[in-house]
Design brief:
homodimer; alpha/beta; eight-stranded mixed beta sheet; 8 strands; about 50% helix
């Protein structure tokens, strides 16, 4: 990973995540080689990459973007996809053994200078890298879907990944407009999914005990927490809640926080009866026949929100991004 | 609460929340009587209401807003504030006994047709309403701060509150542009703070165990979860993650969700050493001397985000709001 554009990248596995990564890479000026054993996945990915390049929000394509699709290549094999690569992003099925076998091939075929990254949202990298010769140049780069529209990427090395490799991956991702954060060591669920699952577990508890509907939870998050959190994370938000800062803010609510912690749901199993109840409620709001259309709406709105937020970022966050 | 504007409202307690409610009420065309025993709070509130009326985002005042401040009155007593009121919003200190005494006065002085609402974020309404003669017309209307910029309001009745009173409060709040949701019964922390605290507890655990910094958590939430959740709540987001809907999506991740639930932090006490560490980190990012300026920035960005989102709401949510 040498320069800020014109790098050779490879996307292995071309589902929703792989296609979105490929679109982000090519938009940033890199070439992308796609590999997926399923021709249907490749066709779908090429169509999605085209939509992104042309501007999913309906705006005009920017100068140079007309030729971007010319930097996308379909590879006939994993070897062909990665043999010249500077950066490889794996987005295949979430299966430790399948990933272990794939990373063995990637390590064998990719130049020794290439960084090899996995999109896994749930598998600790040591679980599929332990026996790999080139495990020092492999890591997890976990995006929040879809990565061409949401900037956050979690970088998580294995115990053998070098700091230099993590920094090279971070630099590459910043170059495509992502905002990587780096975990200090590996942990199940990384950060984002642990935070998300903590909230979802409590939400499921509230629905299960009859306090509210799934629609109520969605409104509380969308019109309350999400609106605040799109601008400020929970700690900076707390810090700004008192002119004396975070400690002062927390001390006022210490006892009620502590008793709320005690009152939170402790349910560990996924209750299928509850999941079905939530599913039925959601189908009344968005029938399965409308999901595809709503996915398009979601991506348009995410794209517009990203544009809006990038023009209204406060000074402290601008500094942080540099 | 009879018509959609021109109602007589009262705000008792004029701190940040009370002043923001007052601004929202007066912007919607109602008259507001303010009461606070502290003259300094009243002065600050009047200044903040003026800023909101004039347009905190720097835009031009809309027609009619020039006269809005003429609908704000300072009352010399609680009786004067509420004696003609259609809707009363209490935003005083979070203390059960103080609220109990205040609601006794509100119930005595306000017309029997008035709705009496508390802004409490943490006290179940039965705790201060149990012995009140007019407890059937009282409820919690818990905003997310500041209520003139964030639409969500949680309505939570006591066991004695009538459904009609809750509906009248909901109609009044919809009339000022809020989006009320109604809890089916009272519960500590209502919904928003339980969801928020579930996430914050896990975030504190991640910082405490050295996985990441508070800044990392803030980035994960702001650039990842918050961006998604400003558009879609967690259940509708999951539903759109599979063309076969929510159950299908969850079933793919059922085992890893369940094992993540088991791995989440179970810390119940607020660790002051950790709070101080987070506080120190936050002061490096935003020194106490800059908090006031950053609060202003936050409110400007919240206001602009609200405007942006109100023009990019998908069809399903438009329907929901009507």
């Amino acid at each position: 990973v040498k320069r800020s554009e014109g790098l050779k990248t490879a996307c292995i596995g071309c589902g929703v995540i792989g296609a979105s990564w490929a679109a982000a890479f090519v938009k940033a000026g890199h070439t992308v080689r796609l590999f997926d054993p399923a021709q249907s996945a490749l066709n779908q990915a090429l169509a999605e990459i085209n939509v992104v390049i042309k501007g999913a929000t309906g705006g005009d394509a920017k100068p140079g973007q007309g030729t971007a699709i010319g930097r996308v290549f379909v590879a006939a094999s994993i070897e062909e996809a990665v043999r010249d690569a500077d950066y490889v992003q794996e987005s295949i099925v979430e299966d430790v053994d399948v990933k272990r076998r794939l990373f063995k091939q990637l390590d064998e075929f990719a130049p020794s200078s290439a960084v090899l990254a996995s999109s896994t949202s749930e598998i600790q990298p040591s679980r599929f890298l332990e026996d790999l010769a080139g495990r020092d140049r492999c890591l997890v780069a976990h995006p929040i879907s879809p990565p061409h529209l949401i900037p956050l990427v979690e970088l998580c090395g294995s115990p053998w990944t070098t700091g230099m490799v993590i920094e090279r991956a971070a630099a590459f991702l910043r170059g495509i407009g992502s905002e990587p954060i780096i975990l200090r060591r590996e942990i199940p669920g990384f950060i984002l999914n642990r935070l998300q699952m903590a909230l979802i577990r409590e939400a499921m508890g509230l629905i299960d005990t009859g306090i509210c509907s799934a629609a109520d939870v969605d409104k509380v998050v969308r019109l309350g927490l999400g609106r605040r959190w799109a601008i400020l994370g929970p700690f900076e938000a707390g810090h700004l809640n008192s002119r004396l800062g975070y400690s002062d803010y927390i001390m006022k609510f210490r006892d009620s926080m502590s008793s709320l912690f005690r009152a939170l749901s402790v349910q560990n199993d996924i209750d299928l009866r509850l999941i079905n109840r939530i599913d039925q409620e959601l189908r009344l709001r968005v029938p399965l026949s409308k999901i595809s259309e709503q996915q398009t709406q979601r991506d348009i709105r995410l794209s517009k929100l990203g544009e809006h937020l990038s023009t209204s970022i406060a000074v402290d966050h601008r500094d942080e991004a540099t």
